[in-house]
Write a structure and sequence with these properties.
Layout lengths: L10 H23 L4 E6 L14 E7 L2 H7 L5 E4 L12 E7 L8 H11 E12 L5 H18 L7 H7 L3 E9 L4 E7 L3
Parallel strand pairs: 1-2, 1-4, 2-3, 4-5
Antiparallel strand pairs: 5-7, 6-7
C-alpha cells in the first residue's frame, strides 16, 4: 500500500537539482558500503544513487518515504520498500548494518529514527552515515540558517539539523567521525549497537 506524503517530490526534478553535487558524493558513497556482509538496511534510498555500490556479499534492502523516488530506484534491482525511518516495520535485531546516505536531514524526529536504527540493528551491528548538518562554526551556521528555507524548498531537507546531538542522545555508541567537506558540515559517521 502506498503511503501518502504531504508533498511528494518528482524523482526527475530531484535528480536534476542533485546532479551537480553527486560528483562529490560519489567519492564518499563507496566508504559506506565497503566490506559489508549480511543483511543491510539502507534508510533514505531516494532515487538509488547509493545502490550500485553494494557488493554481492550482502543483502541490501532500501527504504524511502517517497514512492516516486523508489520507482526510479527500481532499476538497480535491489529490494525496496516505502517506509518511514521513524517507524521501521522490521523485527528487533534484524540487520547487520544500517546505511544512511545523506538522509537524516529530511527526518523530522531524528531521535526517534536513531532509536529505531538501534532497535533493528543486531548486537555489534553498525550504523554508517554520510550527512550534512549544522556546523559548529558560527559563521557557517549563520549562512546555513539564511539558506535553509531555499534548501528546504528544493531538496526538502534541513541545513541546520543537529544530527550529532540526536545521535549522542541515542543508545548507539559513536565509533568514528570525520569531517569531509565545508569545514564540518558534511561528515562521515559510524556508530555501534553494543552487545
Amino acid at each position: 500500500m502506498k503511503i501518502k506524503m504531504t508533498r511528494e517530490r518528482s524523482a526527475k526534478i530531484y535528480n536534476f537539482f542533485f546532479k551537480p553535487f553527486e560528483k562529490r558524493f560519489s567519492f564518499w558513497r563507496p566508504r559506506l558500503t565497503k566490506g559489508l556482509e549480511g543483511r543491510v538496511l539502507e534508510i533514505g534510498t531516494g532515487t538509488g544513487a547509493n545502490l550500485k555500490y553494494y557488493s554481492k556479499n550482502c543483502k541490501p534492502l532500501g527504504i524511502d518515504l517517497n514512492y516516486n523516488f523508489l520507482e526510479e530506484a527500481k532499476k538497480y534491482g535491489v529490494q525496496l520498500m516505502q517506509m518511514d525511518a521513524e517507524k521501521l516495520a522490521f523485527k528487533d535485531r534484524s540487520f547487520d548494518y544500517v546505511i544512511a546516505p545523506l538522509c537524516f536531514c529530511t527526518i523530522p524526529d531524528q531521535e526517534k529514527a536513531f532509536s529505531e536504527v538501534y532497535r533493528v540493528l543486531k548486537p555489534n551491528g553498525e550504523l554508517r552515515m554520510i550527512e550534512h548538518m549544522k556546523s559548529d562554526s558560527y559563521l557557517i551556521s549563520v549562512f546555513q540558517t539564511i539558506l535553509n528555507p531555499i534548501n528546504k524548498l528544493i531538496f526538502d531537507c534541513k541545513l541546520t539539523s543537529e544530527t550529532m546531538k540526536s545521535l549522542k542522545k541515542s543508545d548507539l555508541k559513536l565509533s568514528y567521525e570525520k569531517d569531509l567537506w565545508i569545514y564540518d558540515v558534511f561528515r562521515e559517521i559510524r556508530a555501534i549497537r553494543k552487545a
